[in-house]
Amino acid sequence: MNTITTKDGTQIFYRDWGSGQPIVFHHGWPLSGDDWDNQMLFFLQQGYRVIAHDRRGHGHSTQTTKGNDMDTYASDVAELAAQLDLKNAIHVGHSTGGGEAVRYVAQYGKGRVSKVAIISAIPPVMLRSAANPGGTPIEVFDGYRKALAANRAQFYLDVASGPFYGFNRPGATILEGMIRNWWRQGMMGSALAHYECIKVFSETDLTDDLKKIDAPILIMHDDDDQVVPIADSAELSIKLVKNGTLKIYQGLPHGMFATHSEIINRDLLAFIQA
């Protein structure tokens, strides 16, 4: 197994295939680098070096009781990038991983990052507050925590078979294998890390991080995202970045890079090669 050991002793598992310009994939909650299987294979075949890590507490990485916060997530990526000597890298993040990618690039990416793409991502901040009146109410995230603590296995099955992939929409083609794979990845990780990550993805404010990014950034989001509503995420993020492009899709789910990989891969490749 490929792992690095961070400064606090946590082992971070990663996949590292191929050679050429590196593309680093940041997965969503509560999944693992396995969620990028399609993109890893596709971009490997396009001649890129592809890397996907498991966030601490997720997948094969250490189920640590410490560091389940966005600053540590980004620091872990910085240690991985340094140990693998990644330069001129493209960082691609989905959902929570989009937030992780944004913080990493803003704080550690100078001289190492070429471009950034975030898909159905959490920035700037999800939680409703006086400063963010259009955000998601705290009661929604409290509901996530309650369901996870009560019966994580059932909760993860409900998420994957419902809003994550849009399988709860009328006429949706339900992909049983995709549901099972989501559940498998989620159950590999730590209940504690996943529980604490709910606070991370809902309350972390990435406004200043977005403002700091100089690299070109592609913001990809769908108008029917049931998990991270577009009006309080992508449509706000594009106003904060210096060199951004907003790509809006119609009728695709939160997990659109998996359900509609041919569309997302095509657009990612065009952005990377531009």
Written account of the structure:
By secondary structure, this protein is an alpha/beta fold. Helix content is 41%, strand content 16%. It has helices at residues 37-45, 70-83, 96-108, 138-161, 176-188, 191-203, 207-212, 234-237, 256-259, 261-273, and strands at 3-5, 11-17, 22-26, 49-53, 89-94, 113-119, 217-222, 244-249. It has an eight-stranded mixed beta sheet with strand order 1-2-4-3-5-6-7-8, with helices on both faces. The longest helix is centred in the middle third of the chain and has 24 residues, at 138-161. The relative contact order is 0.16. The model has no long low-confidence stretch (mean pLDDT 97).
* Oligomeric state, counting identical vs distinct chains: single chain
Q: Let me know the number of strands.
A: 8
Q: Which structural class matches the secondary elements? A: alpha/beta
Report the principal-axis shape.
globular
Low-confidence stretches: none
* CA-atom Rg in angstroms: 17 Å
Give the biggest sheet.
8 strands, mixed
β-strand amount: 15-25%
Cα-to-Cα separation, first versus last residue: 35 Å
> Helix content range of the residues, please?
40-55%
The averaged pLDDT comes out at 97
Order of helices and strands: EEEHEHEHEHHHHEHEHH
- Side by side, the strands of the main sheet go 1-2-4-3-5-6-7-8
Instruction: Count every helix, treating DSSP H or I runs of 4 or more residues as helices.
Output: 10
